[in-house]
Write a structure and sequence with these properties.
With 186 residues, the chain is α+β, with helices and mostly antiparallel strands. The protein has six helices and six strands, in the order ααββαββββααα.
């Protein structure tokens, strides 16, 4: 287990940072083979929806589904920080909602959602998880903001979007719910 007080060498931090920046770049290019090559075993944890995408097939499905929803998905990095076992990236995720996102129907609206991703490394400097945090309500607000709410014909779309958001986290992954408290005694 990584000593939480031991800061890796500058060489290790630079290598981690390069891997993370390559990962971001390859996601924008939608070069999934290169993105997946940054992990020995691809694993994403999406905290707001309590979902896990584990293994090559599940992660490829995740990429496919998010790019159907946001084919122009991009990002703007705000800050990048290092910890004993992770690279932490704050960024804006951007995109136009042109396809379904889970149960949320396409609205045609653009979003710019602030996110944080933890790229966690094991003791052998392998990337073992990308753990993503963001506020789903601020994203949903942006996705429905382009819908004319004064037009009653659009209300079913908004209701489907709200139901879709609720359904996305209705079956939480036990890995993200059944967690043990941190051992801070050392």
């Amino acid at each position: 287990m990584t000593d939480r007080f031991a800061v890796p060498s500058a060489e290790v931090l630079r290598a981690r940072e390069k891997l993370v920046l390559d990962h971001f770049h390859d996601e924008v290019r939608q070069d999934w083979d290169d993105v997946l090559a940054t992990f020995p075993h691809p694993h994403y944890e999406i905290i707001p929806t309590l979902t896990v995408h584990d293994g090559d097939a599940e992660v490829r499905d995740y990429y496919h589904d998010t790019r159907v929803a946001f084919p122009d998905q991009d990002h703007e990095i705000i800050a990048l920080r290092h910890s004993a076992d992770a690279v932490i990236v704050e960024f804006w995720l951007l995109g136009t909602h042109l396809g379904p996102l889970g149960g949320i129907p396409a609205t045609g609206s653009r979003h710019r959602t602030r996110m944080t991703a933890y790229f966690v490394f094991d003791d052998n400097e392998n990337l073992i998880v990308e753990r993503i945090y963001f506020d789903t309500l601020s994203m949903l607000k942006q996705l429905v903001s382009g819908v004319n709410l004064r037009d009653p014909r659009k209300w079913p779309l908004v209701l489907r979007a709200l139901r879709g958001l609720l359904a996305m986290s209705s079956n939480p992954n036990r890995l993200l719910v059944d967690t043990a408290p941190a051992d801070l005694s050392a």
